[in-house]
Amino acid sequence: MKSDSALQINFSSDSTKIVISGVEEANLYQLKNKLDNNSLSRSLVSVAELADDTGTDRIVQGKLTVDKKAVYFLPEQAFRKGHTYAVSTVLNASFATKVDILKSDVGHAVKPQAKILKR
Fold first, then answer.
1. Euclidean distance between the first and final Cα of the chain, in Å?
2. Closest Cα partner for 9 from 19, 17, 1?
3. d(CA 84, CA 87)
4. Closest CA relative to residue 94, chosen from 105, 85, 80
């Protein structure tokens, strides 16, 4: 069954974690039962702190948790105020949108969903 809303990627109200809501119910169920935070699970959601004056982006290490409503990314070290983070996920991703299918522009790779968040 598909979720009623589109995938949403945001900081929690206290900015201690990233909340990914609007995940399809079937995906949430599978994640809840099989999530063990191994490398495959961590590849579902990736977070990078974007470079400021250093010129180098930094991968943010963390773990995923799941409940009946959303997937949560909890970083090993707190998100830093004033910094920008790029979040990418393959949750709810597909090989093509309806428009891509109509244009016969179906790819061979999953198209991840991404969002830039400012803390």
1. 33
2. 19
3. 10
4. 105
CA of residue 107 relative to chain centroid, distance:
21
Three-state secondary structure of the chain: CCCCCCCEEEECCCCCCEEEECCCHHHHHHHHHHCCCCHHHHCCEEEEECCCCCCCCEECCEEEEECCCEEEEEECCCCCCCCEEEEEEEEEEECCCHHHHHCCCCCCCCEEEEEEEEC
* CA pair distance 114, 112, nearest whole angstrom: 6
pLDDT tens-digit profile of 58-93?
999 999 999 889 999 999 999 999 999 999 998 876
Question: How long is the chain?
Answer: 119
Is 12 in contact with 1 (CB distance < 8 Å)? Answer: no
Q: 104 is written with which tokens?
A: 């016969």
